[in-house]
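Attaching the record inline, Q. Sequence:
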Amino acid sequence: MTEAGKGVAALIAACTVWGLSGLFYKLLAHVPPIEILAHRTLWSLVFFTVLLMVQGRLGQLRVALGSPRSLGIVLFAALMISTNWFIFILSIQIGRATEASLGYYLFPLVAVLIGRVVFGERLSRMQAIAVGLATLAVTILTLGLGVAPWIALILSISFGLYGLVKKRLSAGPVVSVTAEVLVLAPIACIVLLMAHRDGGAFGADLTDSLLLMTSGVLTAGPLMLFSYASKRVRMGTVGLIQYINPTLQFIVAVVIFLEPFQGWHVIAFALIWVALALYSAASVSLERAARRARVSASTSSTTVMNPASEGSAKP
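Structure, as predicted:
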């Protein structure tokens, strides 16, 4: 298998785990979501710390947290990702997994909008139409249900802001996530101390304890696969394959959890799917144009470096 093929396989595996993770958290529906989040944070920290120790990269944490600026970025990233994790876990417990899948469908469009607002990035015509359709979908769902899809909005915005701030970190994904869960660890410890004062799930039941410990692996494993894939797969391909995640979330919510999906949901999701088709087409088109530009620049550079080649066909 080629390196690109291995990257695609790793990416599919990561997105599949993310997409099916709702089934895992449903098994812990009787445990308060804040307690699950605390365990997910601490067991992720254990897993990542051991991994960095084995790789001899533990010292890189000092660099990631070594200046007030980088510490501030890590703290903000930690706040965004912990919010995202908590809301996702909560959505599974209260029967709103369908809305959570909508949030992850919305994320690429929110990311485009953030790029426009923060970096002044220009939107292509299709991207602008896609963002408009997404806005229309959220508006229709809000009017139809009488309440805004807050879970979807919080998930997409928090993940979008998380991606934004991660661009400002020089550390790799494993080091940066380790730094994030490290700064969250004291809060997680306080949460668990309070939870265990009233009983707590960990230690009371063997199955629950093992599941809570596994949450660290469930967090770390897909991230490592995604990091491996992103170095070997074109970004356009990454963007398309990532839709496996919300699609599996949606299937789990509707087919397995039997959450309602009718009327306003059908209209809103149909608009989102059309918007994503337009966005994906625009992304693929832009990537092809950029690749042609790179090839053209490389060819021009070669011609300049070898001027004799220009006259090689002359008699």
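Residues 3-123+149-260 form one domain. The chain has one domain: 3-123+149-260.

More tomorrow.
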